[in-house]
Specification:
Helix content is 22%, strand content 33%. By secondary structure, it is of the alpha+beta class. The chain has a 6-stranded mixed sheet. A 6-stranded antiparallel beta barrel has the order 14-17-16-15-18-19. Strands 5-6-7-4-8 form a 5-stranded antiparallel sheet, with helices on one face.
Length: 372
């Protein structure tokens, strides 16, 4: 059996009696007790996640911007203010998603990206190949000396400031999807990014690995509740946020994964996969589903790979769960483009076909239900 990788917070999770699971080759906490309580803590107060398995990669060089213009589908020319962040997909020549990532701009010769854990080695190999083939001479530096803690929820910023007072002055005016570097803290130099994966406000804190456990404890003292991968999944699904490997992969176009807003097809800039996207266009709709209870009984739970039956042909659920915020079963589905918001479709759950309503994503943002 292959040994699982461990984050710098692994011993901390064990000390908190977390239930650990194999997540893409990493030994990660799925919960610390009640997954539902962890979910509600993030929606109503503040919770935190160890996301140190995500790979931080620094890109240095005079032509980093040109390199990223080729490598990603969104337009990095939007990044002009130091600390500004951009969400994008990195595509193969066929238009499939190699990975989704966040890009941070600091200076013209220094950008930072954060990529998914399960695709990190593949991503770095791909970027290294592009760099060599096109002669950009970018220095690609994976940072294994960092940990990352995501503090999320309506009280997340206030409690992060309580735990690390030095962060407040640098980040109080920080807008969403922007980051700042704070040098003078008891936990070393921190990158404080107002980003997240829950639909709530908060920070993702990039911290030197040897200070991660102390920062985690300081956040607990400030009233931030540890939360595991289970709550992270229900939160991101309620918030309409895709998960790589379930909602998109190398065989799926971002246009078919509800990510057209991250793709720049209008400018003259070329990028890998652009020609394929323009040739094929959008072939499927990516929608939300809510399973409608019959006689007050849900009758089942929406799960990945269940068949969706519509008058226009069949589709498939890509991610599904029971929503703690809505007390309903919800899902993402890829369906024929003729399916419209407000339609009723049928989902095959075991030997039954159960009705589900097609809704616009997201289901929940900032603690508020956005669907009726």
């Amino acid at each position: 059996m292959t040994d699982l990788k461990q984050t710098p917070l692994h011993a901390t999770h064990q000390a908190l009696s977390a239930r650990m699971v194999d997540f893409g080759g990493w030994d990660m906490p799925v919960n610390y007790g009640s997954q539902i309580d962890e979910h509600h803590a993030v929606r109503t107060d503040a919770g935190m996640f160890d996301v140190s398995h995500m790979r931080t990669v620094d890109l240095h060089g005079a032509r980093v911007r040109d390199f990223l213009k080729l490598a990603v589908a969104n337009n990095v020319d939007k990044l002009r203010t130091p600390g500004r962040a951009l969400y994008s997909c990195m595509l193969n020549p066929q238009g499939g998603v190699i990975d989704d990532l966040i890009i941070y701009f600091f200076t013209e010769d220094f950008f930072r990206i954060v990529i998914n854990a399960g695709t990190a080695d593949k991503d770095i190999a791909w970027l290294t190949q592009l760099n060599a083939e096109h002669g950009f001479e970018v220095k690609i530096s994976p940072r294994t000396d960092f940990a990352m803690i995501a503090v999320q929820g309506p009280n997340a910023r206030a409690k992060a400031w309580q735990a690390v007072p030095a962060v407040q002055a640098a980040s109080e005016a920080l807008k969403p999807f922007n980051a700042a570097v704070v040098t003078d803290t008891p936990f070393g130099e921190l990158m404080v990014a107002r980003t997240g994966y829950t639909g709530e406000d908060g920070f993702e804190l990039v911290v030197p690995a040897d200070h991660a456990a102390a920062l985690w404890q300081a956040l607990i003292v400030a009233g931030v509740k540890p939360a595991g991968l289970g709550a992270r999944d229900t939160l991101r699904l309620e918030a309409g946020m895709n998960l790589y490997g379930q909602d998109m992969d190398e065989a799926v176009s971002p246009l078919d994964a509800g990510l057209a807003w991250t793709v720049d097809l209008e400018s003259e800039r070329d990028f890998l996969g652009k020609a394929a996207l323009k040739e094929h266009g959008q072939r499927s709709a990516f929608v939300g589903l809510i399973l409608r209870p019959a006689d007050g009984k849900p009758g089942g739970v929406l799960r990945a790979h269940q068949k969706v039956i519509t008058p226009h042909g069949e589709g498939e659920i890509t991610s599904g769960t029971f929503s703690p915020s809505l007390s309903l079963s919800i899902a993402f589905a890829r369906v024929p483009v003729a399916v419209q918001i407000g339609d009723t479709v049928q989902v095959q759950i075991r030997d039954k076909q159960l009705p589900a309503s097609v809704v616009k994503l997201p289901f929940v943002r900032q603690g508020k239900a956005l669907v009726s």
